[in-house]
C-alpha cells in the first residue's frame, strides 16, 4: 500500500533538480545548491531579484547551461553529459525566451514546422496541419505566411510559444516571456500561457508578473544568490512568507 | 503577365529634369564651375578614347586572335565539344533565371519580366548581334553565338511560364543540375568516356581563366565554411588546425603559394598522383581562396545572435541541423557581399597564373603581343582583356545583388 503510494508519487514527478551547483567559466558561482521538484501538470513560477540565477537555473533544465555538482532528472532520465539523454530531453521540453528567438529567415509557418519535420520526422502536410491548429490556438493563424520581422512583439512571442508546442512537449520552460514586450502586449501573451496551464500543461515560468503568479501558479519559488530560498503556494507566498528574504523581495516589487 | 507594364513619366518631367540639374549640379556658381570642368574632362577623355578606338587602333590583332584568346590552342577538330558545353550552359542559365523569376515569394508579388530583366535580355541580344561581325567571324560562327543567346532567352521564357506550376521545390532540385553540368563540362573539355583526351596544356584563354576561377570558387566555398566553423568549434584540435591554416595561408602572397604548389606538390605526392600543372594551380587557388572565405563566413557567423542556436537546440535539433537550417542560412546571407567581393578578386588573381607559365587569358595575350606580326598593339589587347574581366566581374556582382535582394535583408531583424 505505502509502496504503491510512493510509486504514484515518483511517477507524477516530472522534473527533479537536487542541490545543483554551477560555476561560470570565469569562476562565478551562479547556482549554490538550488533544488526544485516539479509535478506533472503543475505550474511553478520562479521569482527573485535580478542576477539571482533564475535564468541560469531554468536553462540547466534543458542543458542550455551545464552544471558541475548535483543532479537533474527529467522523467527519470538523468540529465548529465550524455548527449543522447540531452537530445532526448530537449525533444520533450519546450523553451520560450525573453527575446523570442524566432528564425527571421523563415516564415511563421516554417518556424513552426522545421523542428517537427527534422526531429519528429513528420511529413510536411502533417506538420503544417498541426502548426495551423496551434497558430489558431494562440490567435494568429492569419499571419502564417509572414516573416517574424513583420509581426509585433506580442505576436512574435505567441509564435514562439506555438513553435515550442509543435513538438508536443511534456514540460514548458518560460524565461521572462513578457519582459521584452510593450505593456499593452503583455496581456495577450499571459492569456495564452494561462490557457496552456488550464489545459494541464506542466510549466516552469520565470516572471515578474505578480498577477500571473497569483492566478495561475500552483507554487511560487523565490531565488536569491543562486539558492532557492522559499517554495510556497501563491497565497502563502504573497501574504505570509516564512522567510525574511522573501518579505524584503516582496516589499520591493509590490 | 505584367510584361506589358510601361512606366509613364509624369507630365512636366522635362521641367523636373531641369530643376534637378539646377539643384544638384548648378546650385551655386562654384558648383556650376566644378560641374562644367568635370563634365568637360569626362567628355574629353571619352572622346579621346573613342577616337583612338575607332581611328587609330588596329583591331586586326583581336580579330585574328579571337579564337586563341577564347580557348587557347584547343584542337580545332574537337571544338564542337566546347560549343556543346556553351549551349548546355546557356540552357541551364536561362532555365535557372526563369525559374527564379517565376517562383515569387509568398509575401511579395514580383513581375515575371521586371525592367532589369528586359534590359539584360536586350543587352545580351545586342552583344550577340554586334560582336561577332565586329570580330570578323564567319557567318556560321556568328550564327552559333546568336543561337546560344536565343536558346538562353527561350529557356528563360519557357521556365518563366511553367515554373510556377513546378512549385518552390523545383528551385531546390534544379540547383543540383549545376554540379552535373559542371562535371559534364569537365568531361567535355578534358575528354575521356569515349571522347578523345585533350591535354590540359592545350587549354587556354578565357576558357582556362573561367575554368580555374569557377573550380576555385566552387570548392573554396565548402572548404571555407568548414574552416570558419572549425575556427569556432569547441574541439581544440579542430580550432587550432583551422586557425593555423587560415593564418598561414593569409600570411603568404598568392604568387609564392603558386610557385610552391608547382614545385612541392610534385615531391609530396607519389608519381602519377601529382596533378598536372593546370590542376595544381587550381588547387592552390582553391586553398588560398578558402582561407579568405573562411574569414568572411566567420564575420557572418559572428553577426548571428547566440539565441538562434539556443532556440534550435531547445527544439531538439542537433548542432549540425541547427547550423544547416538556422545559423548558416542567415550567416551566409550576411557574408554574401564580402564573399562575392572575394570571388571577384579570385577571378582577377587568375592572371597570376600567367607568371607560372599557364596560358590563361593574360598568358595568351602576352604570347599574342610577342608575335612579331602584332608588335606594338598593346593598347588593343589590354583594353580587350580589361573589358572581358570587367564583364565577368559585373556579372558576378549583378548576380550577387539579385541574390541578396531575393534573400531579403528587410526581413532580418536588427542584430542584437
Ligand atoms: N556567461 C556568464 N558568465 C559569467 N557570469 C554570468 C554569465 N551569465 C550570467 N552570469 C552571472 O550569473 C548570475 C545569474 O545570472 P542569471 O542570468 O541567471 O540571473 P537572473 O536571475 O536570470 O537575472 P535577471 O532577472 O536579470 O534575468 C548573474 O550575477 C550574472 O552576472
Ligand atoms: Mg534572466
Give a brief rundown of this model.
The complex is a heterodimer of chains A (254) and B (416). By secondary structure, chain A is an alpha/beta fold.
How does this model look, in words?
The complex is a heterodimer of chains A (about 250) and B (about 425). By secondary structure, chain A is α/β, with parallel strands linked by helices. Chain A is built from ten helices and ten strands. The longest helix of chain A has 16 residues, at about 185-200. Chain A is globular and about 55 Å long. The model of chain A is unreliable at about 1-5 (pLDDT under 50). Chain B is an all-alpha fold. Chain B folds into three domains: about 1-55, no CATH class; about 75-195, no CATH class; about 205-415, MetI-like (MetI-like fold, Orthogonal Bundle). Helices cover about 75% and strands about 0% of the residues of chain B. Chain B is built from 16 helices and no strands. Chain B is globular. The interface of A and B includes residues 93, 99 and 105 of A. Adenosine-5'-triphosphate binds near residues 24, 30, 50, 52 and 56 of chain A.
Task: For this entry, give a set of tags.
heterodimer, A: 254 residues, alpha/beta, 10 helices, B: mainly alpha, MetI-like fold, 3 domains, 16 helices, 74% helix, binds magnesium ion
Q: Which regions of chain B are unreliable across 5 or more consecutive residues at pLDDT < 50?
A: 1-5, 411-416
Distance between the termini of chain B: 41 Å
The number of helical elements of chain A comes to 10
Give me the Rg of chain A, rounded.
18 Å
CATH architecture of the largest domain in chain B: Orthogonal Bundle
Distance between the termini of chain A: 46 Å
Instruction: Supply the CATH superfamily name of the largest domain in chain B.
Output: MetI-like
The strand count of chain A comes to 10
The helix-and-strand class of chain B reads mainly alpha
In terms of DSSP E residues, the strand content of chain A is: 15-25%
Protein chain pair with the most extensive contact, residues per chain: A-B, 30 and 26 residues
Fraction in beta strands of chain B: under 5%
Main beta-sheet annotation of chain B:
none
